[in-house]
Amino acid sequence: MFLCTSVVNIRFDTITTETGTENVYIKSIGCKGGRLIEANERIVTIFGGSKCRESDLEYSQAMRVGELLAGAGFTICTGGYSGTMEAASRGAHERGGRVIGITMKQFKSEPNRYLSEKIPSEHFYERLQRLIIRSVGYIALRGGMGTVTEVSLVWNKFQTRVLERRPLVLLGDCWPPLMKEFQRYLAVSDGDVGLLDFASTPEEAVAIIREKSKDVVIG
Description:
By secondary structure, the chain is of the alpha/beta class. The protein has 7 helices and 9 strands, in the order E-E-E-H-E-H-E-E-H-E-H-E-H-H-E-H. The strands form 2 sheets. It has a 7-stranded parallel beta sheet with strand order 6-5-4-3-7-8-9, with helices on both faces. It has a two-stranded antiparallel ribbon with strand order 1-2.
């Protein structure tokens, strides 16, 4: 479990995969007075752009995703800042859910106000690992380079069997044509694309998470 405190805790998490175990280095830095992230806590990470506005479709979709996930008993995890991260956090918060924000000290922006816990990271790799490693599923909305990086890393971990497979849902009409272009220009197979799930609505995305995360066990 992660300990959210004001001190640094250096340790290894052992992750069980189909090919054995992987030791993942985590430097845990948390918030004073924070609570533990329990080993059996069902966390879903939401990826998406930081630049979308409240009037944009992605914002309303992310807010609805957060609301539905919180209503289903999941803890929400995001990058902690603006745009879809704020929207998902807001939706979950207004539904009474718990929201974890994985922030980064290098960013000058303030985290959004809907977070239950802020867990700062020293650098991008540590932040990505925190966003990924404890979650039973992921939902990605339209975003920019950061979102593509996050989706690609999770996807590659599935493809190489470094991380046990769990639902990675791509929400929105931007994703299917993007995957077709990946297959057209890159060495991406039908089997690789088959590791992903696609959804048109927040309701569909959350339904996939609820169904496919049932048997996911975070060691």
